[in-house]
């Protein structure tokens, strides 16, 4: 009976459910889009390209491991954890190769070297040049010609490389750059750039490689450029006749057991080839989970408010049902089934829309470089099913929460309250609001002591949502208090202002339903837009203050070769040239940004604000640590620090200094030569130069190195700011859907709030108010609500950003860009006025007498 009545109600009152339907549909689309990202991180495939013809690959373990043993109540628990390293780990060649060859079923073993090799000629037949040879940004890697069999690559023109100056290029590069055998090509690899003669063009038998370009050198030259003597990137293993891939894999696993080698076959070969894609999986899981969690919290908050407004609009109808003997249980069932019907339909439509939305989001992440193109997007029904389930459950819970008061009061009282809004919310709502308010204050206090971005970012957005929840529950009190403060200004605007003030006071609950999404939009938008600039500005300020060099050598290519830095050091008038190479290391399982610097004359170019110890006797067995890392790790000058370098190599270093400028220079600083031996790109990101020579004189000293630029520290800082802006764009894109959903909620709630007031507008018209006066009253109301909502949202954002800034930078002054802040307010104002004016004009269209008669 109740199900039939619920279906009839939804069918006959479509307009009353449009707002709830839109909110639920957007929530389902948002959850589905985030779910597809999360699923891609968990199950996304990474297809192999270069190893296509090699069924089994043996590579080094790309993780650091930690095993803990706990004894509790007579039981022993062993936990093993692993975390990925930042750079490629290498295998010792002789021991592993002999083990593999001894395994039964092995037909052939092909060693593989993969290293940085960027072609620098802008066109064939020219020497020098500053950019990629083909103008393409596809990654380019160098290999020894003997590993061409892994794909396999076959010569289609020319001959194989035999001397150290010979080079074979793939057909894709040859076609794009117009190269052919006999042309010259300058390649910037791990050493000084060298001019090579193109001896041949090779093509893959399985088609062109989509995600990389391959350059093939002679075996001796490849080993020199790989810069890891006695080591290889991997071994490709081909089975002997009659041996299956499964049998071969098991045999090789037994052969290399007890070493650091890992064996991969099938789809597991892709992550070995594309390390950045394997690392992006973790990033996508984290990003998708954070976005999905925030989206779900925002969706619950918005949907509950939407249903509360919808039920409030039906207060009279529900009161009549109570008056004609409908029991509280029947009303609850009716509301719950209506919500389930609307939630199921909206969830299904939203989930279908969320799949292409997730695809678009994935495309944008790939375009910005946050996710590599080699990680294929995974699409299944699971995110859609979860979204529909969450939407239905959320709608049902929202309807039950929003309808609690109407089902509990007596029938006669229900009819009375249908005429006049209750002055005081239920005690349970007040208590819940106060709990959330206290919870928000506690989160702000916690945020002020969090000093890592990974820990503070989720707490930052959670705090905004918690405060928005408190505003939603305590909204009537907030609106009445604001109405009291705005009484004077509103009454000065004339009759429309007086009516607007009366509506704010008399319909505080309805106005509070509009204030909440406005506060959430303003608070979330300001937080998203100003968190990254706060961090970036602090890091840039520390870097500017800490650089004593008056010139910076940078490269348009992959980096500054060590030979260029050495050339500068021998130039007259140069006091110091400090190479800086960056990486990420692991201390235990924790990740720390690190850098390597040239120890010689370090104090002349670099000042990290040492607070303990000294960098004067800095050497290859030394490490300087930021105050944050020192506090976390319990270090002081003279302590021993055990860590895993970028490629997983374990080492022990002595702490020589503790410094304060960790945001600007990273948490750990080591000797350049130590770090350079354990990174994929050993070229310096920058070289800090202290010299009395002019910019032109220094540029002339390194003119034989292609792509070198001598910059002022300010110009170099601006270039680095561009890369930081890219990261900011990724974060903004990640939270953009949440902001868009919140903006839709603002419009939706405002439109619902205005559209229900047809009778009120008709009565005002009958009492003598003109159409223009009613619209003016609506605009005044909208501006008052906009002021309350944006003021609350700005206050929440300021509290959250200040706490974030204290924790991350030590300063209580977050970066707020005035123009961006004004833009946020302008967008909120535009949404509020548009969502008020359009439904207001529609509500005033019918004749007042017709509306009054129909209502009666």
Structural descriptors:
elongated, alpha+beta, 856 residues, ten-stranded mixed β-sheet, six-stranded mixed barrel
Please tell me about this protein's structure:
The protein has 856 residues and is of the alpha+beta class. α16 (495-506) crosses α25, α17 (508-546) packs antiparallel against α26 and α23 (713-755) packs parallel to α26. It is elongated and about 100 Å long. The protein starts with a helix and ends with a helix.
Number of helices: 27
Helix content: 55-70%
Shape by Cα distribution: elongated
The structure class reads alpha+beta
What is the arithmetic mean of pLDDT? Answer: 84
Tell me the major beta sheet.
Answer: 10 strands, mixed
Tally the beta strands: 25
The termini sit apart by 28 Å
Strand content: 15-25%
Radius of gyration: 33 Å
Spans where pLDDT lies below 50 across 5 or more residues: 122-131
Topology:
Layout lengths: L1 H11 L1 H30 L12 E5 L2 E10 L2 E10 L6 E2 H10 L3 E7 L2 E5 L20 E5 L8 E6 L7 E5 H7 L6 E6 L4 E11 L8 E5 L1 H8 L4 E2 L1 E6 L5 H11 L5 E5 L3 H5 L1 H39 L1 H9 L4 H41 L12 H22 L1 H5 L2 H9 L7 H21 L5 H40 L2 H12 L1 H39 L4 E5 L6 H8 L4 E14 L2 E8 L12 E4 L8 E5 H7 L6 E5 L5 E10 L2 H4 L2 E4 H5 L9 E6 L3 H7 L6 E4 L1 H43 L2 H9 L4 H39 L8 H26 L4 H8 L1
Parallel strand pairs: 7-12, 9-11, 18-23, 20-22
Antiparallel strand pairs: 1-14, 1-15, 2-3, 4-13, 5-14, 6-7, 6-10, 8-11, 9-12, 10-11, 16-24, 16-25, 17-18, 17-24, 19-22, 20-23, 21-22
Helix pairs in contact: 1-10, 2-8, 2-10, 2-11, 2-23, 8-11, 8-15, 8-17, 8-23, 9-13, 10-11, 10-23, 14-15, 14-25, 15-16, 15-17, 15-25, 16-25, 17-23, 17-25, 17-26, 23-26, 24-27, 25-26
